[in-house]
Amino acid sequence: MMTRFTLILSLCLLSAHAFAGDVQAAFEALKNTKVNYSPDGAVCEQLARLKVRETYPENAYDITGDIEYDLGALTIGELDVVVIEKSSQKVVLVEEVKCWKSFDGAKDKAVGQMTRFMWNLTKFPEKIRFTSYDGTKLTAANFSSSFPFIFVSQAGGVRHGFDQELDFTLQETEHLRMQLLKCQDLGPCPKPE
Fold it and tell me: What is the pLDDT of residues 124-148, one digit of tens each?
């Protein structure tokens, strides 16, 4: 099992990926995803999933996200990026992605979300339910082995306590988001399902 340090180091070393900081290349990679890019964080979450794919190949891992969890009533929280080993169906990585103006506020929010999730998972494993938009089925048993919980931000976040950062500034992620929304609105890009 990879330690948290080894995982963070390997993800950092892979930061020079195919569209490192290239908004147009990122647009090309995301334009056919049928994702609703209206929420501010949607672009950053998709960029984080693309980056994770470099470490976790498609033949061995499923990468999903936007996994809501509850205890039978209202949604308690959401997991932004979840990596599942196909052979064992165990979660091997969870990422909380925050692209905010305030790195400190974003990190505090991410830590709070992780704490809330881990508390509910540990305290109520028989009650916790997961819902995904892509049909991924999860239970507490999928989270039974230890897994790293990584915090990801836009460029510049590592020096503010994030484990990893994307190759784009906040302004670049917003520009990319606007490009994708415009493309979906005008028709060349598929609209969200």
Answer: 999 999 999 899 999 999 998 899 9
